[in-house]
Specification:
about 220 residues, Rossmann fold, binds zinc ion
């Protein structure tokens, strides 16, 4: 059944991603109802606090509230697993305007997505952050860099980690050209902040470079925090 639904969407993509209503020609991705109901985060202050004492970050901004079965989850799931990269562009555009990111991030030098491991990139075919990052990059006129920050080890659950892995301090992330980032203010982007662990591990690697400052922008934040 799922297969036929997906096939149908492929040929008739003009349905609301959240509720399957037909879209008017003026609408994109979401119908008017779902667009109005999208849970845009009103207060971002406590997100930066989440990182206090854990890692040194300048600003952290998230666009939407994410929880099980809400429209944000549906949007991000469709962006991530259904090949709908246009959702990233749509949300990126809205995020920039809604949160006035142009003035908020006026001193950013480069936009950097949390990288996917090569294996995952091959299976999925794309990094779900690329269309979002490229849209923000275009709107803010800041370079988007997807080639110099890499994920070098695939994520394993604790159960499958061997003794060596568990006690070693090897980072899962690596910079291929650290000197490029020297003295730069990086805007690190991700889809959802859950525990913040992935972002912190990225920041730890990036902050090894002299003079680096980091801000973070994500499409969503889970309510668990
Ligand atoms: Zn809808």
């Amino acid at each position: 059944m799922r297969f036929f639904q997906d096939l149908f969407r492929l040929f008739y993509p003009n349905l609301c991603v959240n509720c399957d209503r037909n879209l008017f020609s003026s609408e994109k991705i979401l119908c008017g109802h779902c667009k109005n109901d999208l849970p845009i985060l009103q207060n971002n202050d406590n997100i930066t606090e989440l990182f206090y004492g854990r890692i040194n970050v300048e600003q952290v901004v998230s666009f939407l509230s994410y929880h099980k079965n809400n429209s944000t989850q549906k949007l991000i799931h469709t962006l991530k697993y259904k090949g709908r990269e246009d959702i990233g562009e749509f949300l990126g555009d809205w995020f920039v305007k809604e949160f006035n990111l142009l003035s908020r991030f006026s001193d950013i030098d480069v936009i950097l997505p949390v990288p996917l491991h090569n294996k995952k990139l091959k299976t999925r075919g794309y990094n779900q952050l690329t269309s979002f990052g490229q849209k923000v990059s275009k709107e803010l006129n800041i370079e988007f860099c997807s080639t110099k920050f890499l994920k070098v080890s695939a994520t394993k659950t604790q159960t499958f980690k061997n003794r060596f892995d568990r006690f070693s301090n090897h980072s899962s992330f690596k910079l291929s050209d650290p000197s490029y980032f020297k003295n730069k203010h990086i805007l690190l982007i991700d889809d959802v902040i859950t525990t913040g662990a992935t972002l912190i591990s990225c920041c730890e690697e990036l902050l090894k470079v002299e003079g680096v400052k980091i801000s973070i922008a994500t499409l969503a934040l889970t309510k668990k925090i």
